[in-house]
Each structure stands twice: as structure tokens, then as C-alpha cells.
Amino acid sequence: MIYVFLATGFEEVETLGPIDVCRRAGLKVKTVSVTDEQVVTGTHGIGIVADSMFAENDYSDAEMLFLPGGLPGATNLDAHEGLRRVVLAHSEAGKALAAICAAPLVYGNLGLADGKKMTCYPGFEKYLVGAEYTAALVERDGLMFTGKGPAAALALGYAIVEHFCGEEVAEGLKQGMMYGDL
Q1: Among 59, 111, 143, 151, which one is most buried in terms of CB atoms within 10 A?
Q2: Average pLDDT of 115-135?
Q3: CA–CA gap between residue 153 and residue 160 (Å, rounded)
Q4: Which residues, in sequence order, are CB contacts of 149 under 8 Å at separation 6+?
């Protein structure tokens, strides 16, 4: 299961793009509200109905935790103590983490960026203490997946699919979605 955490002010395209790509590949993805409401409003005023509330999950089946960017979404994720505990436990268990845009700051603030190649929205690299900031559209270092910003949404989704389903499946999705045909 891939858990995608929604906080008020999340970036909609950075959330829905990777979810769409992963679900097309047959991956199980569950959205989780870290607010007190089932409907979480993104930074551009689009409300998304979360599949579940934070406290409803035990996360033992998590294969990956995904943090969308956007402001104040990323800082709201970083302020959620329960999520911070889940992220640390997930990392200690040697499982995959993903974040895009401003959200890698959560991993940086938890000390999980040290020694990793990472990317994020320009200006947020200061939060990636100990990381090698690459400014790439998408960066994968072991089980750490990061995306630079909204334009990286599909590419990050394909990188996640490649990790779980293989290169052939990811390439097939790219062709079917006409990725790179522009």
C-alpha cells in the first residue's frame, strides 16, 4: 500500500498526478487526511475526499509513504506529530519514502536526508540537511524518491511505478499516456 498524506494547502497536481499513474499500474494507493475533515482543500481551492483519516490506519501494510508539496500543505505535514512518528518508524523499517516540491523538508527536518541525493522546489534545499541537492526533476536514491515541483508529478509517478512494477510497466504507461510525445 502507498499512503498519500493530505494536509490543508497541498498541491493538487503533485498529489493527483502520481496517484493516477500508480493506480493505472495497479498499485494500491490510499489517501489519508491529516486534518479533522474527510475533505481536504488544496492550495488552489480544490477539495479532495480522502480515503481515510489519519487515526484510522496502523500503516503496517505501508510499502511507501508519499508527501505532496504545496504551501502551506508541506509545513502542515511537518507539524503533524503523528505523521512524523509514522515516517520515522517507516524509515527505520527500511521502507520507501517519496515527497515532491516543498514536502522533502519533512524528511530533512527528521534527519532522513543525510547522505541522500535529493531534489525539491528551489529554495527548500536548505531544509535537506546533509543531502546532496541535485535540482533534478526527479531524484531516486535507494528508497528515497523526490520530485522538484508540479512539472515532476507524472515523472515521479513513473519512477514509483518502475520501483514497484518494473521498467517495462512504467514504459508502457508512459507510452499509453503519451508522455514524452509533446
Answers
A1: 59
A2: 97
A3: 11
A4: 14, 69, 100, 101, 121
Alpha carbons within 13 A on the beta-carbon side of 171: 3
pLDDT band at 182 (very low <50, low <70, confident <90, very high): low
Distance in angstroms (rounded) separating the CA atoms of residues 72 and 51? 21
- pLDDT score, position 4: 98
CA dist., res. 101 & res. 131, Å (int): 15
Least Cα distance to 108 among 119, 122, 96 occurs for 119
**Kind and range of the H or E element at 50?**
none
14 within 8 A of 153, measured Cβ to Cβ: yes
List phi, psi (to 5°) of 161: -60, -45
The reply to whether the predicted model has a pTM over 0.90 is yes
Nearest partner of 31 among 54, 8, 58, 55, judged by Cα = 54
Q: What angle do CA 42, 134, 105 make, to 5 degrees?
A: 40
Residue 70 has pLDDT above 90, yes or no: yes
Query: Using CA atoms, how far apart are residues 117 and 115, in angstroms rounded to an integer?
Result: 7
Rounded to the nearest integer, the mean pLDDT of the chain is 97
How high is the pLDDT of residue 180? 82
What is the C-alpha to C-alpha distance for residues 51 and 84, in angstroms, rounded to an integer?
Answer: 20
